[in-house]
């Protein structure tokens, strides 16, 4: 029983932590300042091998292109990590509670709970594994609602991110005229100081500051 209680606590903490982290990252408009965050751990864990692979790519444009893939790709991987964590959390919850399941000539084990959790989260409705009992059915309904809402939020959030990245690409393409190609901070200062156009430099940096704040 103690082991079941421990698994139940782990499941609840995992589910609550992922949901709160998703809320802070996607929905909450203000900047989160606490140190321990799942996305921070995720990006630290993924950036190290990605940057290590980049060292084996020829320097110059090939390496820059390889590194530029990390941002959009890591964002999709982060969404996937959140989804898998929620599926795992609900599977642990079912396993810890010993939720009775209707299966067809199969032995019920943790993988059965994981399969039920995955099909419920993505609202597949296959029907080959179904819960029995009030608690199991309630948890299944809750997970189905969370999965549907999670997918809806992700789908709605992607166009916003695409617009932000598009504005970034426009600014980067305009940077050659201000800072050379490839752009450098020294060249940016030199061109504006020689042209006695310091005021325009301030406006240019302000535009980039606004983009970062968004």
How would you state the average pLDDT, rounded?
85
The secondary-structure class comes to mainly alpha
**Low-pLDDT sequence parts:** none
CATH class assignment: Mainly Alpha
Output the CATH topology: Helix Hairpins
Give an overview of the whole structure:
The chain is mainly alpha-helical and 214 residues long. It has a single domain (2-157), classed as Orthogonal Bundle (Helix Hairpins). The chain has 8 helices and 2 strands. The protein has a two-stranded antiparallel sheet. Helix 1 runs antiparallel to helix 4 (70-97). The longest helix is centred in the last third of the chain and has 46 residues, at 134-179. It is elongated, with a radius of gyration of 24 Å. The mean pLDDT is 85.
Characterize this entry briefly.
With 214 residues, the protein is mostly helical.
Task: Provide the fold topology.
Blueprint: H1 2-27, H2 38-54, H3 61-68, H4 70-97, E1 101-102, H5 110-121, E2 130-131, H6 134-179, H7 185-194, H8 198-213
Antiparallel strand pairs: 1-2
Helix pairs in contact: 1-4, 4-5, 4-6
